[in-house]
């Protein structure tokens, strides 16, 4: 008789093979989670692109404000001049200062022996200027001279009065202290002090307020400050002494048009990155090469974001100049391009809507391009189209980006999309945990079953082996004739 030949199972190998199909749903959930994380990364990248675009718009605005002139004073001890705008042009201007503006000053005639000890009286000081503006401070008995100084200087409604403590040497060499108050320059800013009911300070005006008086190219001017602007477009200056000086303005050899055009090219490149990103990354795919499972998600809001952005870019400007649209500014749509989805490299899309500066010569501009003609002949209209604070391109686009596209509020398109993905990702995590728990139970059950089966096989194999020995013994007895 031969052995029944039962074989034990390789429990680990057998269970792994049986579990392979059980893991399909688990791997699907893992690829879904990976796709959701990639999708969140895509939204984060898009936000960064919008931030870069806004920075480039800001740089273009700064390029429009590039100063192309410089100012030099023949006597900087009398006047220093600074160019603030390109309307100044080149020229020479005579300025004669006959009186400097000065600030009114009060000094306490009462002398104090300490600056840090409480003065021991209560009252309210009120300061009122010529424009009937005023502010008050309350003095408590525990307030020292230093505390009173700080109350004046730190008052939120202060109208330009500054306080200081002057230290001097009195009779016998003892230190003594006076409170000194200084108003802003000019007669319009001189102040009256009331409320010193006990004459505790006995304030006396030691310097009277005065306005600056000067002539500029023969025109008489009076100003409340020695820092003067508004006399001539694009020029500001500071008066320092009486006398006559010549202020000369001239080109500083900076080509504003070139700086604007370069900054505009950078801005359009940043804008085009957004357009191609939105067009080229409509899908997110995650693949697991081992399990061959994959998940594809759709960035549904990308098309909506593109539409809102293009609407803001193409909103007509109602300014007084001749530039009302991108085309008026010499900016046109670029030819369509093929782009590969960076989150699903097997996909290729067509991107439409990028922008470029039109390089076609225009007959109306004597063969010059629209942009070059505007930079040289209608600079202010071009600048106003982009930078007008009320309805220029920057205002429209930044409003759309800040308040709708990347807003952190409830109407933020990207925020809402990311919130939705994050909620789905949290649900996917729960599903993964639940499926992993189920798989662990199934695997444990299979291991238990096959371990038990191996025990049964071993039991019957032992019986078979014992019977085999018995049969062999009996067979030998029979053959020996015993």
UniProtKB/TrEMBL annotation:
First-listed, main subcellular location of the protein, grouped into a coarse class: secreted
Compartmental location: Secreted; Bacterial flagellum
Keywords noted in UniProt: Bacterial flagellum, Cell projection, Cilium, Coiled coil, Flagellum, Secreted
GO terms (BP aspect): bacterial-type flagellum-dependent cell motility; cell adhesion
Flagellar hook-associated protein 2 N-terminal domain residues: 9-104
Domain Flagellar hook-associated protein 2 C-terminal intervals: 209-461
InterPro entries: Flagellin_hook_IN_motif, FliD, FliD_C, FliD_N
Gene Ontology cellular-component terms listed: bacterial-type flagellum filament cap; bacterial-type flagellum hook; extracellular region
Family: Belongs to the FliD family.
Subunit structure as annotated in this protein's UniProt entry: Homopentamer.
Function: Required for morphogenesis and for the elongation of the flagellar filament by facilitating polymerization of the flagellin monomers at the tip of growing filament. Forms a capping structure, which prevents flagellin subunits (transported through the central channel of the flagellum) from leaking out without polymerization at the distal end.
Protein name as catalogued: Flagellar hook-associated protein 2
Organism of origin: Aquicella siphonis
Gene: fliD
